[in-house]
C-alpha cells in the first residue's frame, strides 16, 4: 500500500523571489493491486507528485510510505515511466534492457511483447517515438516492480497503438498483480484502465473528486462504446 501523508510542496525561484505552493497537506492512499489514474489540468502538480512518490524529489513537508516504510530515495520497488526520454542513447535496445536484468528469457519476452525483438541491436535514435516508449515500458516491466508509476506514458503513441497498449497493460496487471499509478490527460484512457480516477483541483492542489470505476477487470475494447462508459467519461469531464 502507498500512503501520502500531509504532503506540502513549494517551489522557490531565488532570482525572482517568488514561491508557488503546489501541494498543501495532500493525502492519498493507493491499495495493493489497484490501478489509480490521476487527472488534472496542466501544471497542477501531477509530475511533481510522481517525483515525490518515486523518491526523486523530497517534499517540503510530509511523508510517503510504501507498505509502512518511509520513502527516502528511489527504489526498485517503484519504477517510473516518464513523460521524457529516459533511455541510454549510447546503448542498443538489448543493452538498455540488460542494464536492469540478467535474465535473457525475460528480456526477450518483454521485447517480444512490445514488438521490439527485431530492433534488439538498434540504438534509440533509430527508433520512432512510440518504439522508444515501448522500450521504456519493456525495461520497467523486466524489473518486475510491484508498483509502476506512469506519467503520460502513451502520449507519443498513435491512436491504435495507444489502445493496444492500454489493453496490454491491463493484461499484464491482471497476470502479475501490479499496483499502478497512472497520470493522463486522456479521460477515456483513465476510465478504461482504472479502478479509480482521482480528479485534482488547481493549486494548491487537492483531490476534487474520486470516481470509482466498477467495470470488471476483464475489460475488452468494446466496453468503450457502452452507455455506462460514455456516462463516466462525461461525468469526469464535467468535474474537471
Ligand atoms: N523544478 C521546478 N522549479 C520550479 N517550478 C516548478 C518545477 N517543476 C515544476 N514546477 C512548477 O510546479 C507546477 C506543477 O508542475 P508539474 O510539472 O508537477 O505539473 P503537471 O500537472 O505534471 O503538468 P503537465 O500536465 O503539464 O505535465 C507548475 O506550475 C510548474 O511551473
Ligand atoms: Mg506532468
Automatic annotation (TrEMBL):
It comes from the Bacteria. It holds the Pfam family ABC_tran. Transmembrane segments: none annotated. Keywords: ATP-binding, Nucleotide-binding, Transport. Residues 2-227 form the ABC transporter domain. The keyword Acetylation does not apply. GO terms for molecular function: ATP binding; ATP hydrolysis activity. InterPro entries: AAA+_ATPase (IPR003593), ABC_transporter-like_ATP-bd (IPR003439), ABC_transporter-like_CS (IPR017871), ABC_transporter_ATP-bind (IPR050166), P-loop_NTPase (IPR027417). This is ABC transporter domain-containing protein. It comes from Candidatus Vogelbacteria bacterium RIFOXYD1_FULL_46_19.
Amino acid at each position: 500500500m502507498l500512503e501520502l501523508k500531509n504532503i506540502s510542496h513549494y517551489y522557490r525561484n531565488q532570482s525572482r523571489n517568488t514561491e508557488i505552493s503546489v501541494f498543501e497537506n495532500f493525502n492519498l492512499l493507493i491499495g495493493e493491486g489497484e490501478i489509480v489514474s490521476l487527472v488534472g489540468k496542466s501544471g497542477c502538480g501531477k509530475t511533481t507528485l510522481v517525483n515525490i512518490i518515486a523518491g526523486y524529489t523530497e517534499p517540503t513537508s510530509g511523508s510517503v510510505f510504501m507498505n509502512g516504510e518511509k520513502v527516502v530515495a528511489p527504489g526498485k520497488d517503484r519504477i517510473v515511466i516518464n513523460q521524457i526520454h529516459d533511455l541510454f542513447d549510447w546503448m542498443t535496445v538489448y543493452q538498455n534492457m540488460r542494464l536492469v536484468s540478467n535474465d535473457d528469457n525475460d528480456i526477450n519476452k518483454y521485447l517480444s511483447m512490445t514488438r521490439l525483438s527485431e530492433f534488439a541491436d538498434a540504438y534509440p535514435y533509430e527508433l520512432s517515438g512510440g518504439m522508444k516508449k515501448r522500450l521504456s515500458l519493456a525495461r520497467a516491466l523486466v524489473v518486475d516492480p510491484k508498483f509502476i508509476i506512469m506519467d503520460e506514458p502513451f502520449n507519443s503513441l498513435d491512436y491504435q497503438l495507444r489502445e493496444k497498449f492500454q489493453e496490454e497493460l491491463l493484461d499484464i496487471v491482471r497476470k502479475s498483480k501490479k499496483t499502478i499509478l497512472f497520470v493522463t490527460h486522456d479521460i477515456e484512457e483513465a476510465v478504461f484502465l482504472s479502478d479509480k480516477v482521482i480528479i485534482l483541483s488547481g493549486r494548491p492542489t487537492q483531490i476534487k473528486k474520486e470516481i470509482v470505476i466498477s467495470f470488471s477487470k476483464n475489460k475488452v475494447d468494446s466496453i468503450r462504446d457502452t452507455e455506462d462508459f460514455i456516462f463516466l467519461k462525461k461525468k469526469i469531464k464535467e468535474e474537471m
